[in-house]
């Protein structure tokens, strides 16, 4: 895994090996078949359920502002102006990736444009921004690959990677944003959110099995914050609750 640590606006780059990370995005505010007619207020939180001691908490918030130990955000391979061209990307006022780029003073776009983070499917990059830049102390980027080849099934693997990396970093909670609609992808909201949860649970159970066999150690997770935009909170929550119920049947 690559890691970039910002000091002011200077950076040092260290190569660590393979990495991973977990928030369902500060997403689109327009009303579609994947959204609710009545937007949910920003800052709203709801525990959609818990499994294996981990609360799955929906939150109407963007990845730059969510208060968690680790923030995870997802991005596609770079194309010029991809998060700024509206449509298909969300307008700047509603776009969580634009807010994240602004909080980092343009560094998100810079590292994508220069190829320091290519955004290949399941590629990861860990950033340590200056204190108080974001709501979280660290930011993990996970690549989604070619936007024209995206399928919702990829989000299961993304959820697995997010969880594995969170455990490696020793955090007890993380926020996850898929950022699909921010990037202009009209994805099935409930299925994407549910698949992220499926990936989180799959990996957490795998890691607990390895821990019981004394093959790994980690600090337990207690909360995963799944970020959604005001128009998508309820629909995403339905997918999250359905995924949780699947594991309890």
From TrEMBL:
Record field: transmembrane: none
Matches recorded under Pfam families: Peptidase_M17_N
List the InterPro entries hit by this protein, alphabetically: Macro_dom-like, Peptidase_M17_N
Q: Where is the Peptidase M17 leucyl aminopeptidase N-terminal domain?
A: 98-198
> Is Signal found in the keyword set?
yes
| Gene Ontology molecular functions | aminopeptidase activity
In the UniProt record, the signal sequence range is: 1-27
For this entry, the protein name equals Cytosol aminopeptidase family protein
């Amino acid at each position: 895994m690559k890691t970039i640590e910002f000091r002011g606006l200077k950076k040092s780059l260290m190569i660590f090996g393979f990495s991973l990370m977990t928030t369902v995005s500060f997403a689109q505010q327009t009303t579609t078949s994947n959204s609710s007619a009545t937007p949910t207020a920003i800052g709203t939180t709801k525990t959609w359920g818990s499994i294996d001691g981990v609360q799955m908490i929906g939150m109407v918030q963007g990845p730059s502002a969510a208060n968690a130990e680790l923030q995870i955000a997802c991005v596609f391979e770079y194309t010029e102006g991809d998060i700024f061209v509206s449509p298909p990307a969300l307008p700047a006022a509603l776009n969580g990736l634009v807010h994240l780029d602004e909080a980092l003073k343009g560094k998100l776009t810079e590292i994508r444009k220069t190829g320091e983070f290519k955004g290949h499917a399941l590629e990861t990059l860990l950033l340590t921004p200056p204190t108080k830049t974001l709501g979280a102390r660290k930011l993990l980027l996970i690549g989604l690959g070619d936007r024209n080849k995206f399928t919702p099934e990829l989000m299961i693997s993304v959820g697995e990677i997010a969880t594995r990396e969170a455990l490696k970093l020793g955090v007890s909670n993380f926020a996850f944003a898929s950022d699909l609609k921010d990037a202009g992808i009209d994805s099935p909201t409930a299925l994407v959110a549910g698949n992220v949860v499926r990936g989180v649970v799959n990996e957490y159970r795998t890691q607990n099995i390895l821990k019981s066999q004394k093959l790994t150690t980690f600090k337990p997770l207690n909360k995963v914050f799944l970020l959604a935009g005001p128009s998508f909170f309820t629909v995403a929550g339905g997918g999250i609750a359905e995924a949780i119920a699947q594991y309890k049947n």
